[in-house]
Structure formats: structure tokens, C-alpha cells
Design brief:
The structure is a single chain. The chain contains three helices and five strands; from the N terminus they run βββαβααβ. The protein has 86 residues and is of the alpha+beta class. It has a three-stranded antiparallel beta sheet with strand order 1-2-3, with helices on one face. Strands 4-5 form a two-stranded antiparallel sheet. The protein is globular, with a radius of gyration of 15 Å.
Length: 86
């Protein structure tokens, strides 16, 4: 499972690592590949508070939206180790 996501911006395609919260706009394929290799993390061993809130809202049928993703990142940054993954 990849934790690197792509997003189109005015500067080009931005690559974002959801674990490190590092973003870059590569100038060529070599830079993009280098970023992907450097950020090929394994699955985190803990759920953050944002992960748990996101799972609960999804279970209730609430569709994720951009503010939901911001809340998830904010909560995970403040409470990253709430529950151990199995």
C-alpha cells in the first residue's frame, strides 16, 4: 500500500507522503522515482486519533471530504499513537 499521493497544482503534479507530510513537485521522472523510493514506508504500527475518527465516520456512512482529510491530518499530528494496529 502506497502512502504517496498525487495532486495537480499550478506548478505541476505534486507528490505528497501522508506519513512524513512531505510534499514535492518533481521536475522530471528521476526526481519523482527518487521521492517514491525514499517514501516507501511500511504500514504504521499505530492508529492515530484522526484515523479512528475517519473510520468511525465512514462506518456511519459519512463520505470523506477535504475538511475531513484536514481534520484527520491535524488529529494524527497531535495524537499519533492512540491504538496499536493488529
Amino acid at each position: 500500500m502506497s502512502h504517496v499521493f498525487q495532486r495537480r497544482t499550478q506548478r505541476g503534479v505534486e507528490l505528497l507522503c501522508s506519513i512524513c507530510r512531505v510534499a514535492t513537485v518533481p521536475q522530471d521522472d528521476r526526481q519523482a522515482q527518487s521521492f517514491l523510493v525514499a517514501h516507501a514506508h511500511t504500514e504504521p504500527s499505530y492508529f492515530g486519533a484522526g484515523d479512528l475518527v475517519a473510520a468511525a465516520t465512514q462506518a456511519l456512512g459519512v463520505a470523506p471530504c477535504p475538511p475531513c482529510e484536514q481534520r484527520k491530518r491535524w488529529l494524527n499530528a497531535r495524537l499519533p499513537r492512540v491504538m496499536r494496529r493488529r
